[in-house]
Amino acid sequence: MGSGFVVRWLLALAALLLVPLGAGAQDMLIIAHRGASGERPEHTLAAYERAIDQGADYIEMDLVPTKDGVLVARHENEMSGTTDVGEHPEFAARLSTRTIDGEEVTGWFTEDFTLAELQTLRARERLPEIRRANTAFDGLYPVPTFAEIIDLVRAKEAETGRAIGIYPEIKHPAYFASIGFDLPEMLVEQLSRAGYRSAADPVFIQSFEVTPLVRLNAMTDLRLVQLIAAEGGPADIAGRSYAQMIAPDGLAMIATYADGIGADISLLLAADSYGLPLVRNAQAAGLAVHGWTLRKENLFLPAPLRSPGADAQPGEMGTLVGLLQRAGVDGVFTDDPAIAVDARVSEN
To answer: Which residues make Cβ contacts (< 8 Å) with residue 15, sequence separation at least 6?
Structure first.
């Protein structure tokens, strides 16, 4: 990338940072992506508790089922990269290959393990080359159930006196439906038992697929978020692209069944740091806009916000938080909630 581009980007950045937030603007939500996963192995109670202690408004979890129908938190149902399952000889025969959302995946899958078996495993850092410090916690934490995460949230609410939101994603619902697991029904039932039922409750349910959200809209008053990637399209609707879904007519369709979109930040903020039309177009359709995923390391930051050094070195993530807030984004997913909370501009 040429130096001229960097200079133009930095000038645009400086200009945007001088623009005050609009009158009546609300504090941007800080959503802890899989917990404080920049500091602890993701999807562990330790990562979630650290995120809560750092002031995150919501904690986010990906949910997949066990063989006996218990929702647990894992980035994917294939768990060789996030647990020590490969070091358990008693499970060696369960190594398998299956097709999920059109892609062949080889490994060990949660749906082949009972909860009791799964809880003999221990979590490990998913990005060890980038987050070497997190590997010190490998082997310490079990895979948490969704029920255990809710229990943690309730305990921390009692301790802190503040509401703590939960932001579950149902992973690969079409695939799981094909093997007998109804993730939308399982999730709503568990949330209802825990007392989460209305749009006023601090819950967002998210999915990259469309059909499960349409079903959920008829099943619950909890708020729903359509996830949008920069490329591709929902696995459950052949021929439909995310690019089509973020056109004005596509956003109007999303607004018939969802309350917001969760979009790749490259769709929300241009390379010159200015906000893209998707933010205002989605909000004009009545949709909240949440952006994903902010991470502190150079590898994940725009070039002008990177610090000198290797990919693992921290850059200027806080500046990116400010840019997204001034672009009007309603919330951000981040692996580093402490940085985001500190960088957020409060309107209170």
So the answer is: none
Would strands 96-100 and 71-73 be described as parallel, antiparallel, or unpaired?
unpaired
Residue 62 neighbours by CB under 8 Å, 6+ apart: 34, 43, 73, 74, 75, 76, 168, 169, 171
The pTM assigned to this predicted structure is 0.93
CATH number of 3-9+22-77+131-343: 3.20.20.190
Q: Write out the chain's pLDDT in tens, 348 residues.
A: 445 445 445 545 555 555 555 433 458 999 999 999 999 999 999 999 999 999 999 999 999 999 999 999 999 999 999 999 999 999 999 999 999 999 999 999 999 999 999 999 999 999 999 999 999 999 999 999 999 999 999 999 999 999 999 999 999 999 999 999 999 999 999 999 999 999 999 999 999 999 999 999 999 999 999 999 999 999 999 999 999 999 999 999 999 999 999 999 999 998 665 678 999 999 999 999 999 999 999 999 998 999 999 999 999 999 999 999 999 999 999 999 999 999 998 755
